[in-house]
Design goal:
- By secondary structure, the chain is α/β, with parallel strands linked by helices.
- It contains 17 helices and nine strands.
- The protein has helices spanning about 40-50, 75-85, 105-115, 140-145, 160-165, 175-185, 235-250, 250-270, 300-315, 320-325, 330-360, 365-390, 400-410, 415-445, 455-460, 465-480, 485-510, and strands at about 25-30, 50-65, 65-70, 95, 120-125, 155, 190-195, 205-210, 220.
- A nine-stranded mixed beta sheet has the order 3-2-1-4-5-6-7-8-9, with helices on both faces.
- Mean pLDDT is about 85; it is low at about 1-20 and about 290-295.
Length: about 525
């Protein structure tokens, strides 16, 4: 439950604020004249995530959705001139390295990276195109391996992962993860193991690092396979998006959890582009087309959620706990139990709010959720502990508290910012509505000074918490506007489940106190 206080229940924040809201991202890769892969896909992907894209072209290809018919590699001297022209004038926040073509190009790029040392380097070891065409000379594979330690993240598909290790392609996910661990250990960097080439409906990705740079050696992000033949440029688009977002988040897990849903929807809407006769491109700008995401006008989705909340609010107002709190006749042991469980809940809730801040797409939202996370802990300390310091209450986590927190933590692990906001929202919205009702009834009764919970009821009048609630509603409504139909359905389900937990949480003192 989001508590109120005489001070704001939202922000004074924690969490890193990105230095560059619009990262300057350089793609070093080959050109695809059909626009689906290579430099062209990279620039679209960078723009789709709010970055400023730049390009140094390593190779010219003659290709379309049916395949690659020719490759021309310009002199490496000209590539170096491109790289020097950019880096001598523009501060580069992130670099994505894609198709390099031959050993001379790889050596030149390695020399430039060693000299410039960009803050973020994502290496997509482009060796084989989606069509199956080979894009790297076999004689250059050794040179490519020498480039890997300079990358912060390596994003091979499964055939490329096997080629880098000199092994057969992984037939299953467990083998793929094992290969990823060995490549990460060998290079001393993070490897993104991608499940796109595996059979089945699941399409997981995993960040792998064995040197302690991640919170654990393997961080797996699940996903569902999209049934489409239009996947041209998927690897290019993913790697350049990760480079862009990482320059903002400085957290590979947060970056992947932000980019993966975007890419899945880019694949899901790819058929609508109707480009080419073969494997067409993904839809980089699906999130900008309301026709593809009919969430309705501003406020419509919030109204839909409110319809889900109304029955639960009616149930809450009918609870003996709420009626007793309003009248002042609530047995103190029940109130003590409620506060003790709320303190435990807020500890977990603060972590969920911090995750929302990590996934948030704008600086305003990042600050809001980070500050809200901090205030959860401050309020828990100021209000709950002060009350309970002289009153007995069990500190053991109750079954309803555990279930509610587990629900929120599971939702936060899904990687969808929109769905997470929907799960978070009832703790603002329902709590604010119930608090307002309780405070109004207290005032209408003449604000009796002998009310045992008077000090607590007065905190419900906090306008700053009401303002924070309105902002949380607006953020959720806006997130729904950019979400897919599937995500919006999941948002409604997550919101409804949290509403049910809110009701059960208020009723728990009657059952367990």
């Amino acid at each position: 439950m989001a508590s109120s206080s005489n001070s704001a229940v939202y922000p004074v924040g924690i969490g890193a604020v990105p230095a560059r809201p619009h990262p300057r991202v350089l793609s070093i890769a080959g050109s695809d004249p059909s626009g689906g892969a290579g430099i062209q896909a990279d620039l679209k992907s960078i723009a789709a995530h709010g970055g400023y894209g730049m390009a140094a072209i390593t190779a010219l290809t003659a290709q379309n959705t049916l395949g690659v018919s020719a490759v021309h590699v310009p002199p490496v001297e000209f590539l170096r001139q491109q790289l020097d022209a950019i880096s001598s004038d523009i501060d580069i926040d992130a670099v994505k390295v894609g198709m390099l073509g031959d050993a001379a190009v790889i050596d030149e790029v390695r020399s430039w990276l060693e000299e410039v040392r960009p803050a973020v380097v994502v290496l997509d070891p482009v060796m084989v195109a989606t069509s199956g065409d080979r894009l790297l000379h076999e004689t250059a594979e050794a040179s490519l391996r020498s480039l890997l330690p300079l990358a912060d993240l390596i994003t091979p598909n499964l055939p490329e992962l096997a080629m880098l290790l000199g092994e057969p392609e992984a037939p299953d996910w467990a083998t793929a993860l094992d290969q990823g661990k060995r490549l990460a250990a060998e290079c001393g960097t993070t490897v993104l193991v991608k499940g796109g080439h595996l059979a089945g409906n699941d399409c997981p990705d995993a960040l792998v690092n064995t040197s302690g740079l991640l919170r654990q050696d393997v961080i797996e992000v699940p996903g569902t396979r999209v049934d489409t033949r239009n996947s041209h440029g998927t690897g290019c688009s993913l790697s350049s998006a990760l480079a862009t977002v990482q320059a903002r988040t400085d957290d590979w897990e947060a970056s992947l959890r932000e980019v993966k849903p975007w890419l899945l929807q880019a694949l899901a809407t790819a058929d609508g582009l109707k480009v080419g006769k073969g494997s067409g491109p993904v839809h980089h700008f699906h999130h900008l087309e309301p026709a593809l995401n009919p969430a309705g006008k501003s406020g419509d989705f919030a109204a839909r959620l409110w319809a889900e909340a109304v029955p639960e609010l009616e149930a809450i107002y009918g609870l003996a706990f709420i009626q007793g709190l309003q009248s002042g006749r609530l047995p103190e042991p029940q109130f003590n139990y409620y506060l003790a469980q709320d303190a435990i809940y807020l500890n977990g809730y603060s972590r969920v709010l911090a995750r929302a801040g990590a996934l948030a797409p704008t600086e305003e939202e990042q600050l809001f959720w980070a500050k809200s996370s901090q205030l959860c802990l401050e309020v828990e300390s100021e209000l709950h502990r002060d009350w309970l310091s002289t009153r007995p209450a069990s500190t053991e986590t109750g079954p309803m508290t555990r279930s509610y927190v587990d629900h929120l933590l599971a939702t936060s692990a899904s990687g969808s910012y929109a769905v997470l906001l929907a799960a978070i929202l009832p703790c603002y919205w329902l709590y604010a509505e119930v608090g307002q009702q309780l405070h109004a009834a207290y005032v209408e009764a003449g604000a009796p000074s002998d009310h045992p919970y008077a000090a607590w009821l007065k905190t419900y009048a906090d306008e700053e918490f009401a303002a924070a609630t309105r902002k949380a509603i607006d953020f959720t409504d806006a997130a729904a506007a950019g979400a897919s139909a599937q995500e919006r359905k999941a948002m409604v389900e997550a919101f409804a489940q949290s509403c049910r937990y809110e009701t059960a949480f208020f009723d728990a003192p009657r059952l367990f106190a």
